[in-house]
Amino acid sequence: MLIISDKLEIADHEIDIQAIHAQGPGGQNVNKVATAIHLRFDITASSLPEAVKNRLLALADQRINKDGVIILKAQRHRSREKNREDALQRLTEIIKSVLFTPKKRRITRPGKAAQKRRLDKKTRHGRKKSLRGKVGEDS
User: Fold this and answer.
1) HSE (CB half, 13 Å, CA atoms) of 76?
2) 3-state secondary structure (DSSP) of residue 131
3) Closest among 16, 32, 19, 14 to 75, alpha carbons compared
4) What Cα–Cα distance (Å) separates residue 71 from each residue in 9, 28, 93, 100, 102?
5) pLDDT of residue 40
6) Would strands 15-20 and 9-10 be described as parallel, antiparallel, or unpaired?
7) Structure letter (DSSP) for residue 49
8) pLDDT value at 139 more than 60
9) Across-strand partners of 56?
10) How far is CA 51 from CA 44, 64, 100, in A?
11) Does domain 2-96 have CATH number 3.30.1390.20?
12) Which end of the chain is less congested by CB atoms within 10 angstroms, N or C?
């Protein structure tokens, strides 16, 4: 059971975890032991609330494919258990990032004092630039 928050949990059968051979350096250990973890989590078939599913599917994340499956590969550590914990932690972070709905932005306009300050600043700047013109020919 993966606990996301106080009210949200994911059952183990919803997460597909496979041990695979890790890439990169590591000597004989890499060739003999499958320490990397390949995690797959199907968003649409999960028991998550619909609102959370929709926000997850709307994420512009390369780890979520077009079928709505989150695919994570964990191979930072040399042990399978640490890589498994790392993959589950990363899955938890992805789901936590969409748990709360972002607050709707209220459209606001600048106040009259702010508009006046902006126009005064533009006027002062224009006056300063006009003084940088060519000097007249006085003999």
Assistant:
1) 10
2) coil
3) 19
4) 19, 27, 14, 22, 25
5) 92
6) unpaired
7) -
8) no
9) none
10) 11, 17, 10
11) no
12) C
